[in-house]
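Supplementary Text 2. Reproducibility record for the structural model of the 447-residue chain.

All settings were left at their defaults, and a single model was retained for analysis rather than an ensemble. We include the record here because the model underlies the residue-level annotations in Supplementary Table 4.
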Amino acid sequence: MLHSRQLSILKNKLLHLDTNSIKEVSVCRSTYINIRKNISPVQIKRALGGAAFAVLLQILPIQSGAQNRAVFNFGSPQFNPFGLQSIQGASITLPALTDLDNDGDVDMIVAFSDTTAYQSIFKYYLNEGTINNPEFVDNGASIFADSIASADFIFSAPVFADLDNDGDQDILAGTSDYASSTYDGKFIFFENTGSATNPQFAAGVNNPFNLTPLETSLFWIPALADIDADGDLDMLASSYYLGAQFFKNSGTPNAPQFDAPIDLSTAFEISQQIGFSFPALADMDNDGDIDIFINDYYSAAFIFFENTGTPAAPVFSTGVQNPGNLSVTQADLTPNLIAFDGDPDLDLFTGSVTGVIYRENLQFGVGFNNLMVQSITVSPTVSHDVINITNLKKPIQQAYVYDMLGRIQPVVISGNTVSIQSLTNGTFHLVVIDNQGEVYTAPFVKQ
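Retained model, structure tokens:
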């Protein structure tokens, strides 16, 4: 009975809402958050009606100042999904994911340990399915000049990023110099000398971008993102003995130069001690800044550090263990958070000792789940300047674009046409809410 009254009050406020009033918007949002603790989004939508629900969605996702808006609710782990199979002779499999051929879906490389040859080898899996029905296929033809990440060490952790700002995805792998007396950790850079649609990776270069080996660091597990919004990619990396370390990029987007590593307490005043771990960087709560997500090896838990600051001045809250119904299983390794399955929430891939593990994020955006999301058609799906929404029958109430790390990107929308000239090259997701509160999404590629 109480919830019915609250919903009735919320509906009336939404239908008469002045969206320019910070106070009125805040009251509606707070009321919704309280109701949402006990009632599902589907029930709320049914009670509010289409027009009021459309207004609610308009004020929830775009308020960049709102914090503590977790948008992840992970399903059960799936082992070797989408056509993947265990790699014969491999004892550790570490995936890295991105759209390697610029066709709008997510591809994968897997670094696996060859226990016979005692080396780490890359395998390329092309996604030959669709954004809604992915299917990974062993590509066969090598895209690597040297597919061996480290001929003298069995463990290699790769990550994708455009490190030289030329529009295609390069690889930075963390590993170890087994020839050194102290097993110094090292990084290997594999430049993409092909293109955004036809990747070809050059032979690896050890310790580029001012990176230097550190004694007793053993091996490194890197994650890359622009954590301070200055236009270049910074790095969070963890080593077996030194734990999680921050490498600030003091160079440029075209020519990275990483400073010496500092611990997370010094870099971001994170008080929790993070030892050997597997880090990821992404905007997990859709508020426009980069959060930290770590698989802490020794505590056997995923830990989420929310960025409660700003994109340019990050401040991280106390870590929350196993958010969104997560639990570590089968020795999860190297988390990859990426918009994978046709909606812009971030799904989770990890490596393991048995294969690749996938957990679908069942929560999309702020306040509604994937059951409420429908597909739309955009044309062209690969474009430099504009895309057109071709099959939406009702007027658009709100529209926005997410990148593969879950960050909202600025675009200009006029009618059913979206200008994407301001976007960098890559894969994005368009989200549209019509004036009846129906939610639609479609992927596209900016070239």
